[in-house]
Each structure stands twice: as structure tokens, then as C-alpha cells.
Amino acid sequence: MAYALHIERPHSELTLEEWIAAVKRQNGLKLLAEEKVEMKNPQTGEVIAISTGPGDVAVLFQSKGFLGLGRTNEWRPCIRFSRGKATFSATPDIESPSHPLRVAVSKLASELNAQVVGDEGEIHEW
What we know:
Elements: E1 4-8, H1 16-24, E2 29-31, E3 36-40, E4 47-51, E5 57-63, E6 72-82, E7 85-89, H2 100-111, E8 115-118, E9 123-124
């Protein structure tokens, strides 16, 4: 299983209601309807269907293209909310301060007085 990071509070769980309210206040985020989301594995081409739940979030990834041409906008399901915390995959490119997912989770964690914590308990000071 991939390494994950979490938005969580040390001494109290996030509620679904406060999570949804915080997501709605952020640009570049949208709540996913409770449905199946299909994604294609870029290495194998296999299509994978994942059921979404209340509080699951898609992040807007924008590409400017060469000389401003060919701009693309893509909503990617990135964050799952469950059991009082939000979870997302720790990809190598998330260390970039301009990565859309990193920007989003940093803002959400700050607004919710929470921290970004790794699977092994390390705190990410973004």
C-alpha cells in the first residue's frame, strides 16, 4: 500500500460538518458526490473504480501549456475523509510548494487547526 498523509488534530477528531464547510470555502476544491469514480492507471491502462463517500474531495490541477496555449483543467479525486481525518497519498511531487494538493491540504489544515501527519507520525510543517 502507498504511503499516506493525513489532516488530523492531535486531541480531537474533525467532524464531517466542519470538514465540508472548510472545503467549500477553498478555491480549487470540490466535494465529490457519493458515487463511483473511475480512474485509469497511467502505467497499465487498467481502469479502477473507487466508491466515494461524504467528505471526499477533488482538487483542481491546472496546466498552463506552452506559451499559454493548450491550458488544461483537470479535477482529480485526491482526499478521502473518514473517521475524523482526511487522508491523501504522499506522492514524490507533493514536496513542491506549488503542488495543488499540497497547497490545498496546507490551507485546510491551517483553517481547521489541524496538522499534516504521515503514517509514521511525522508532522509536515507546510
